[in-house]
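Researcher: I need the complex structure. Ligand is adenosine-5'-diphosphate. Inputs:
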Amino acid sequence: MNLQESQFVSVRVPAEAEFVDIVRLTLYGIASKWGFSYEEIEDMKVAVAEACNNAVLHAYEGMEKGFVEVKFEMNDGGIRITVKDEGSSFDYAHKEAKAESLHNKDLSEINAGGLGIFMMQALMDDVEVHTNAGTEVILTKFLQRNEELA
Amino acid sequence: MNLQESQFVSVRVPAEAEFVDIVRLTLYGIASKWGFSYEEIEDMKVAVAEACNNAVLHAYEGMEKGFVEVKFEMNDGGIRITVKDEGSSFDYAHKEAKAESLHNKDLSEINAGGLGIFMMQALMDDVEVHTNAGTEVILTKFLQRNEELA
Amino acid sequence: MNDKKFTIQKEVMADEVIVYLSGELDLSAATEMREDLEPFVNQTNRALTLNLKDLKYIDSTGIGIIVSILKTRTAAGAAFGVEDIPAKIKRLFDITGITQYLRPSNGSAERKEDIV
Amino acid sequence: MNDKKFTIQKEVMADEVIVYLSGELDLSAATEMREDLEPFVNQTNRALTLNLKDLKYIDSTGIGIIVSILKTRTAAGAAFGVEDIPAKIKRLFDITGITQYLRPSNGSAERKEDIV
Ligand SMILES: Nc1ncnc2c1ncn2[C@@H]1O[C@H](COP(=O)(O)OP(=O)(O)O)[C@@H](O)[C@H]1O
Ligand SMILES: Nc1ncnc2c1ncn2[C@@H]1O[C@H](COP(=O)(O)OP(=O)(O)O)[C@@H](O)[C@H]1O
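Model: Output:
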């Protein structure tokens, strides 16, 4: 599986709202090629879009808009999707601690934002975030194999 | 139009046959966003695939398979698509001189290959090829504007 | 930029507005949707219903807009409902926990009784 | 690699084989198509017809395969035809100049008379 492991596809778009659908389209092509189900692809589409939306909305605040680069790698276990921007960093540990759904909340307590990180975590098997230079969000989804193939 | 001119999308895939459809998919997303018609997009799909096929088949002969990178740029006049590999170079002027269709040929004279460069030229408004380090094929399609917009 | 991937259609009646959302409600559609619906969100004398039958995609951006409409309508004591939610959209509503706040609006319930 | 984007179906009759190509005939499908059709290309006692009704994409790779089948069949004096060519595929056949060599095979012509 060495060959497979070194293979990747990447797509780079301007950090603007109207290009996020290009990333979703590329994801669709790759993930269906690599054997993910319709439902899994839909989940990944939303998770990847959340990471791209954050790059569009938050990464380049107060500076010139840059790019978002999304890299898709397949290995034995699943797909690893890296969403990278070159914007300003932020305190992920702090934001992650606050990431939660609207369950068990009263309507007056909830507000319209802050669901992005929560959604990524809910929809993927693993979420890792590096904020050294810009932000790098690494989303992993395991490939469910058929009994026969296992 | 300065902003538009500096915007580009790029996609990078392994130089293998099964990834060329990802490039076609990305092209579809970009070109429909940028206002090209269904027919124009179909023409561009084939032209871009011809350039990618050549990178897959010829660029990395006798060496380790590398990547194909495809860059889509929109400017006032149209779309500029650059298909780039890092493989061995070739004599484009020589190949271009031989690029022709099967019209006016007898069946016994024709063979199954050699249509790629001809197709790119027939389907795009402009084809430019640089073969300094690897190959860079630059395909241009003008955007037909409506009367009202002109 | 051509190729409309998100569209909004409205059916305006005496005591209810039904808003049909179709296509992909993502970040690039958010401003349009907010601006387009604002007058109806603020009209408290008419029930407001979002019909999601033809909605193909939503993410936290769209869910955020729905939450904000919900809060405005609730604060104003005005009817608001969401109907015909496709399974794949419902799944995201369940995951985020917005489902508990969504029910078909009164307006839409009456409308359905009328038809049946 | 899942998600079959190109499929080949064959209808084998006493004196004709009709091969239905559907989906995208690109470089990644070329080897499969060549290997799959080889025995029928070499069977000169049966007419060979390619039906392209459901073909959505072709490029010089696929056109090259058709040219090579055409040359083999012509050299062997065996019937070969291509039928139901969608407009967008026909356009590429016209541009490359392959159209002049393609006609429905005898087999297919007789078949049609039988049916009508
Ligand atoms: N790529 C990024 N660059 C800079 N800041 C980010 C990035 N991604 C997330 N953040 C920060 O984390 C916060 C939480 O993100 P999220 O959970 O997606 O909710 P929302 O985007 O709705 O605020 C954001 O408000 C922002 O401050
Ligand atoms: N990216 C490339 N790298 C190296 N050689 C190339 C490349 N593209 C084209 N060539 C050379 O140009 C020739 C003609 O290409 P083309 O017209 O597409 O026909 P075909 O690929 O069927 O031979 C190829 O056979 C090859 O020798």
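Model: Summary of the prediction. The beta strands of chain A are 8-14, 67-75, 78-85, 126-130, 135-142.
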